[in-house]
Design a protein that fits this description.
With about 190 residues, this protein is mainly α. The protein is globular and about 65 Å long. The protein contains seven helices and no strands. The chain starts with 11 loop residues before the first helix and ends in a 5-residue tail after the last helix. It has one domain.
Length: about 190
């Protein structure tokens, strides 16, 4: 019978243990960063600036930048879209509230803010790493890619804004809404509590 000690251990076990420890530590710090939204986005902005400076000084990797722009545009659409599409919901018979007596349905994003931030940060890091491999530096005329991306952005945002206007939702909020409550209703009806 073989022993379970050091002699029977495979060389893959330390690598698997290191990977597991690294994954656990990475998840710990990722979880701790969740409430610090401003700091997370400032870090992502720093990563994005490093990527932009790298592309500027290398004078290449425009295809990588274009693909990154398309990916970020796709993430932005997911961030601005509701989890349940009102067009599909209207076909099922259920719809958004149209009167004050209807049930309140809060706006729930298809792509939550944290996942949006994480995906963008990861995308910039991967694109930055790709700039170190010449196989990704395909020679293109970058102004055409830029103009095409701008047109695509405008058309996509126009469609998204029209969808937001049609179904009357606003995906951006600045925090918890505060209501004045009964004081404004009581003062307008002339009733006072003493």
């Amino acid at each position: 019978m073989e022993g379970v000690g050091e002699e029977g251990a495979s060389p893959v076990a330390p690598i698997a243990k290191w990977r597991n420890d690294f994954s656990r530590l990475f998840q710990y710090y990722l979880d701790r960063s969740t409430p610090h939204m401003v700091e997370r986005w400032l870090g992502t902005l720093a990563v994005a600036m490093i990527y932009v400076l790298r592309v500027y000084f290398v004078q290449g990797f425009y295809i990588v930048s274009y693909a990154l722009g398309i990916y970020i545009l796709n993430l932005l659409i997911g961030f601005l879209s509701p989890k349940v599409d009102p067009e599909v919901e209207a076909l099922d018979g259920a719809s958004l509230p149209t009167k004050g007596s209807d049930e309140f349905k809060p706006f729930i994003r298809r792509l939550p803010e944290f996942k949006f931030w994480y995906a963008i940060t990861k995308a910039f890091c991967i694109a930055f790493l790709m700039t170190f491999f010449s196989v990704f530096d395909v020679p293109v005329f970058w102004p055409i890619l830029l103009i095409y991306w701008i047109v695509l952005f405008i058309l996509t945002m126009k469609r998204q804004i029209m969808h937001m206007i049609k179904y009357k939702y606003v995906p951006l909020n600045t925090g918890k809404q505060r209501y004045t409550g009964r004081n404004s209703a009581a003062s307008s009806s002339g009733l006072r509590k003493d």
